[in-house]
Amino acid sequence: MNRDETDSHGWILRKDWYDQEGFMRKEKNLVNELQKKISVIIPVYNVEKYLPDCLESVINQTYKNLEIILIDDGSTDESGQICDYYALENDNIHVIHKKNGGLVSARKAGLLAAHGEYVSCVDSDDWIEPDMIERLMNIEDNTQADIIAFAGYEECGDYQGLKKNTIAEGLYRGEEQLGNLYGKMIMNEIFFEHGISTSIWNKFFKKGVLEEHQMNVPNDVSYGEDTACVYPCMLSADSIYVTNIPLYHYRVRQGSIVRSEKVSSENFEKLYRTLKLCFDAHTKKKILNVQLNYYMWQAVFLKGYEKIHDYMPLFPFEKVKSGMKIAIHGAGLFGQVIRGYCTLSDELSVVGWFDKHYEIYVKQGYPVKAQDDAADMDFDIMVIAILNSRIAEQIKKMYAVQGIPEWKIDMVNMQVLDRYSLPQFDNGG
Questions:
Q1: Helix or strand or coil: residue 285?
Q2: Phi, psi (rounded to 5 degrees) for 375
Q3: Exposed/middle/buried for 293, CB within 10 Å: 0-12, 13-18, 19+?
Q4: What phi and psi, each to the nearest 5 degrees, are found at residue 341?
Q5: Which residue in 61, 96, 229, 381 is a FRET match for 274, CA 20 to 30 A apart?
Q6: What is the distance between the alpha carbons of residues 121 and 390, in angstroms, rounded to a whole number?
Q7: Helices 227-236 and 265-280, interaxial angle, to 10°?
Q8: Please, where in the chain does CATH 3.40.50.720 lie?
C-alpha cells in the first residue's frame, strides 16, 4: 500500500498505520477505544524483587484498554526506577513519585489520577491471571454491578490456598437482597468467617463508588485500611456481584507490613470510628454494629493482643488455668500471637505446637510439629488458635479421633466474647 486508501468502512488507511507484522495500529487503537477504560492502581513501596512479575501480569492482560497507575510511595530501593523503566516501554503506564505516606495515601493519589470507568487495585508484590480484567468486564457487561467480589489464591512458598467469599454467589440488587448480604458480609454467622472478604485486591469497583469511600479512610490507618474502605463501598453500592472464580494471586510474605508492624491504639480507634460512623448512618445499623464488635475482637486477637488485660490467663480460652501445660494448634498469625504470649507468661508453659501445614512453618524457623504427634504429648489443655470456628470444630473432631478427649480442647467461643467488653479504644475512652 503506497498511498492512502479507504477500507470497507470508509476509514482512511495510512501506510504509517501498519506495524511490521502487517497489522493496522490504528484499527487496534479503535478496538481498544470501543472497550471501556479500566484503571489499575498499584501502590509501590520497596518491592523490587516482586514488582516486575506484578507489572508483567498486568501489562499482558487480554483486555487492552487499561490505564496502569503506579504510585511510588517513597521507595528507597530500585522500585521507583523499575516503575520508570516500564513507563518508558508502555505508553499506558503512568508513574507518580511521592513522599512516603502509606498505602492509603498512595491509593488516594492513584484514584485522583485515574480516568477509568472501573478500578482494580493490585498490590505490587502480587500477580493476576492473564484474563482477569476481561472476565470481570464480561461479568460487568452482563450484570452492571457496582462492585464485583471475586476469589484469589494465597501463595506462601510451595503452598497455595484459596481465599473466597462464603456467602452465596450471584447478583445482589434491591433492598431485600442487599439487606440479606449486609447481615452476613462482615461475619457469616460464625466467628470468624467473612461473608465477603475484607480485602480490596479481590474487588472490582465502579470508580465513583470506590473514590467516595477511599477518600474517607484516614491516611495513618495501616491495619484494617482495606476494611475501612470495602464495607462502606458495599453499603453504598446499588448492586453487588459475588463470584468465587479465582483470578488473583496474593503473596503471603513474612516481612510484609500486615504481619510485622505493631498496631497502635490510635489505629484501632480510627478504624473503629470510620466503620461505625458509616454503619450508624445506615438502616441496617443494628446488625452491622453487632458484626463490627466481633470484627474488632478479631483485629485485637491478631494485632493487639497485648491490649487485653487481666481477663483470664489466656483469653478467650476459659479452660486454661494458671500453671497449666499448653499445647497449641495453629501456626498462622493468631497461633503465633498465642504462642508468643504463652512463652512470655509466668503462668503458662507451651509443651507443643502443631499445624496441618507444619512443613511451611518449619521452613520459616518455627518449631511446629505435625498434628498427628499431639496424641503423644503430655499437656493439660490443647488450645485451637484458629479464629474461624467452623475450621476449629473440624480440628477438634480430628483430635477426638486421635483419642484426645473433648474436655482437653478449647477454642474461641462467641459466648465468651459476649461476656467481656472490648479494650477501651472501641469508644475512644
A1: helix
A2: -65, -25
A3: middle
A4: -65, -45
A5: 96
A6: 30
A7: 0
A8: 325-412
> Closest by alpha carbon to 100, among 257, 323, 321?
257
Average pLDDT score over residue span 39-51: 98
CA distance 166 to 169: 8
Distance CA 149, CA 230 (A): 10
Which element (helix H / strand E) includes 203? strand 203-206
- The H or E element containing residue 163 is strand 159-163
CA gyration radius for the chain?
25
Domain 325-412 class? alpha beta
Q: Which residues lie across from 382 on neighbouring strands?
A: 327, 409
When pLDDT is cut at 50, 70 and 90, the band that residue 5 belongs to is very low
> pLDDT tens digits for 262-280?
789 999 999 999 999 999 9
Chain Cα centroid distance, residue 210: 15
Q: What is the rounded average pLDDT of the residues 347-360?
A: 95
Q: Residue 214 half-sphere exposure, CB side, CA atoms within 13 Å?
A: 23
Sort 67 into a burial class: Cβ within 10 Å, 0-12 / 13-18 / 19+.
middle
20-251 carries CATH number 3.90.550.10: yes
Predicted confidence at residue 31, as pLDDT, reads: 52
